[in-house]
Amino acid sequence: MTRALTPRDIDAFQRDGVVLIHGAFGPEWLSRLRAIVDSILEEPGGFISDTGDQGRGAGRALDARYLWRENDAVRSFVFDSGVADLVGQAMGCEELRFYFDHWFVKEPGAKTSTPWHQDVSYWPFTGQQIASLWLPLTEVDRASSGLELVKGSHRWGKCYKPRRFVASDQKSDWIHDAEGETLPDIEAERDRHDIFSEPMQPGDALIFSAWIIHAAPSNTSERTRAAVSTRWLGDDVRWRPHPAADPSIRQEDLSIAPGELARDDDVFPVVWMRTTPRFDKQS
User: Would 140 disulfide with which of 134, 136, 181, 251, CB 3.0-4.6 Å?
Assistant: First the structure.
């Protein structure tokens, strides 16, 4: 285990939908993960979005997903680093299954921003125990596209209509079939919300609910911002394919039917299980 979360950490996650864990990962893991980022930048492929100049250079923004299926170094991080330990503790689940890995790079001057959204709006699941651990591999603040999250918005009880991140991205045509309530204009009403926006060092970890509303601005700094996010499924998560859900995983890829718990061991493998009794305040 990388480290044990404190009751205060767990309470913060449950209350706010987000918790910052300082120094969660050390230099050895950071070195391995930066090497993966370098390889992605040199040879993009797979589930990837790449904007700006090809190759390294100012203005480039890149994200890549699902490397764990083919990349042993990524699999080692998922299964061996203790990342699942942290998320499992925060969510308070009995077992934790892996969904996918997601890599982000924004070079200096990258104009691409991530609009306010909920992750759960894009994913083919229902359930409260869905979360991500976002790990910066470089120094991060708001100027270099650090994450911003609306505290407590995971408890609003709404799954808002997804929106296309980049207007010209034809790969996201499936979003046109989305239904539901439009997300409030968070940017226009920032003063009405308690927004988490904290500088982070390499190795710090941000654990947040898939239901929390969050965003990331463009990179106006003079340094590259690189990060990896791992996505996780807890006990109550059920498979819910629908027309406006990310089609990266299809019904034919799974051994479970719609509405069933997301317990397909090949596609969503178990990485963590609770080994100590849950604390009972009444005992």
Answer: 136
Instruction: Tell me the per-residue pLDDT of 184-202, one tens digit each, with 9 for 90 and over.
Output: 999 999 999 999 999 999 9
Query: Per-residue confidence at 2, pLDDT binned at 50, 70, 90?
Result: low
Identity of the residue numbered 156: W
Could you tell me which residues are beta bridge partners of residue 208? 18, 132
Query: Is residue 51 in a domain?
Result: yes
Residue 275 placed within a domain = no
What are the strands of the beta sheet with 214-216, ordered from one edge? 114-117, 214-216, 148-150, 195-196
For position 243, which CATH number holds? 2.60.120.620
- pLDDT at position 170 is 47
From the list 37, 7, 30, the residue with the least C-alpha distance to 204 is 30
Domain presence at residue 280:
no
pTM of the model: 0.91
Residues in the chain: 283
**What range defines the domain where residue 48 resides?**
7-268
CB of 268 within 8 A of CB of 281?
Answer: no
Quote the DSSP letter at residue 140: B
List CB contacts of 113: < 8 A, sequence separation 6 or more. Answer: 145, 215, 216, 217, 218
Q: Let me know if residue 185 belongs to a domain.
A: yes
How many independent structural domains does the chain possess? Answer: 1
